[in-house]
Amino acid sequence: MGFYTVKTTETFEKNIKRLSKKYRRIKKDVLPILNRLASGEFTGDSISGCNNILYKTRIASSDQKKGKRGGFRLIYSVKNDSEDNEIILHTIYAKSSKSDISTGEMKNIMKELEL
């Protein structure tokens, strides 16, 4: 396993900023997952129909105290090539306010990846 550079999209930055107003500890909750991803330990499940490029992982919310099932969902992609090993964080959302990522959002992410 190699090391990966973790990058964020504008959408991810906007969403985590918005969520941090309601969930004060979100950045603390997300940090352990980011460290695992950076070390090459991919968490979560591959999203079907995305050629094993997009992944969705659960993150527990210490503000809600509901565990991973009621916490946050992080959508990320993995880029492996000869020059870069990157993890790209696309979006994050609270499971309590949104049950799943919409088809439109998925299409936008795929467009960002130029797939």
Overall description:
- Helices cover 31% and strands 27% of the residues.
- It is of the alpha+beta class and 115 residues long.
- It has a single domain (5-112), classed as RelE-like (YaeB-like fold, 2-Layer Sandwich), CATH 3.30.2310.
- It has a five-stranded mixed sheet with strand order 1-5-4-3-2.
- A hairpin with a 4-residue loop joins strand 4 (72-80) and strand 5 (85-94).
- It is globular and about 40 Å long.
- The model has no long low-confidence stretch (mean pLDDT 85).
Radius of gyration: 14 Å
Instruction: Give, in order, the helices and strands.
Output: EHHEEEEH
Q: In CATH, what is the class?
A: Alpha Beta
Q: What are the segments in which pLDDT stays under 50 over at least 5 consecutive residues?
A: none
Which structural class should the secondary elements be placed in? alpha+beta
Main β-sheet, in a few words? 5 strands, mixed
Strand line-up in the sheet with most strands: 1-5-4-3-2
Strand content: 25-35%
CATH topology: YaeB-like fold
The pLDDT mean sits at 85
Share in helix: 25-40%
Backbone shape: globular
CATH homologous superfamily assignment: RelE-like
Question: What is the terminal separation in angstroms?
Answer: 25 Å
Total number of beta strands: 5
The structural domain count equals 1
Number of helices: 3
- The CATH level-2 architecture is identified as 2-Layer Sandwich
Task: Report the oligomer.
Answer: single chain
